[in-house]
Amino acid sequence: MKPRHRRMIWIAAGLGALGVATALVLNAFQSNLVFFYTPTQIANGEIPKSKSFRIGGMVEDKSLQRIPNSVGVTFVVTDSAKSVPVRFDGILPDLFKEGRGVVALGHLGADGNFVATDVLAKHDENYMPPEAAEAMRLAGKPIGAPAQFQQAPSAK
User: Fold this and answer.
1) CA atoms of 150 and 126, how far apart (whole Å)
2) Residues 31-53: pLDDT tens digits?
3) Is position 156 within any domain?
4) pLDDT digits (tens, 9 = 90+) for 90-107
5) Strand pairing partners for 131?
6) 28, 46, 59, 155: least buried by Cβ within 10 Å?
7) How much of the chain is helix, strand and coil, in % rounded to 5?
8) Which domain holds residue 72?
9) Exposed, middle or buried by CB within 10 Å (0-12, 13-18, 19+), for 9?
10) 136: number of Cβ within 10 Å
11) Do 106 and 56 belong to one domain?
């Protein structure tokens, strides 16, 4: 075998290994992606079936209810156009309050309620996830002060 042919085989093997590595990385990303959906998108059926996803919006006033004899709670997340009931069995974050922004990770139950495995509260009063702010703007009924809809400052 000539040195030129040997080199071509090594180059082809290297490109093949690089292709396999790229395919494995992309597969890992695809299986770990968690998308963000608004209550309106959930009501329209735009959610993935049998996969976890995030729901975001505002916690409706007077919707928080504690489940007796457990750490579970139920509350309603809204984007001002549609609302989705959420059940969470766990301890809520300290910043969780009615009328504030929230993002919950979980899946849609058979009864149409969102079953959350993790709840994230808005970290301060001057930030809301851009997707949630846009959904509320499109609904035509923004909740809260205009400063709530500003994006976080970018790192320079």
Assistant:
1) 7
2) 666 678 888 888 888 887 778 88
3) no
4) 888 888 888 888 889 998
5) none
6) 155
7) 30, 25, 40
8) 36-149
9) exposed
10) 26
11) yes
